[in-house]
């Protein structure tokens, strides 16, 4: 049975509205990205991600998980987390107490400057605030000014789909770029066609996620 084009259009409008509206947590506070490479013995990544709140996130004593998902590619899972503005101690407690207790074993990076398009009323576009279900999270190592490389990547996409946003990150990589669309092909090809050929890009590490419900029903 084919998909219903009316429902598909409604879904897309819903994603677009969520992207435009955001919420009070999206661009306030201290943000970090968690790249899950392992979990405690006896647990699996999918169960741990569900404990973190999945795509809806979850409040913890020391901060909030804004989004979490399993990944396929360079990492096994991902979470976007937030603590109060400038409160590095709370961020550390969120990572090493709250998330550690849930079995998360990870690499992490603190978010720096967020990509903002040029324009009078332009709004910031950071990774994993809102996006369609198919998503590529691309970690980029740069040998030039990371902000300049980030802006050039956005320019190559004409600041349009599948480019969803990017941020400078303080960690192993210098940038985190998000591509998203309605199919895997919409995000897979542009990693090679646009990002890896950008001047200043040394290497990329890419992971994919489908953030809609994906588990088989009993």
Could you walk me through the main structural features you see in this protein, from its secondary elements to its overall organization?
The protein is of the alpha+beta class and 218 residues long. The protein folds into 2 domains: 30-111, Lrp/AsnC effector binding domain/regulation of amino acid metabolism (RAM) domain (Alpha-Beta Plaits); 113-210, Alpha-Beta Plaits (2-Layer Sandwich). 28% of the residues lie in helices and 34% in strands. The chain has a 10-stranded antiparallel sheet. A hairpin with a 4-residue loop joins strand 8 (163-170) and strand 9 (175-181). The longest helix is centred in the first third of the chain and has 17 residues, at 5-21. It starts with a helix and ends in an 8-residue tail after the last strand. Mean pLDDT is 88; it is low at 1-21.
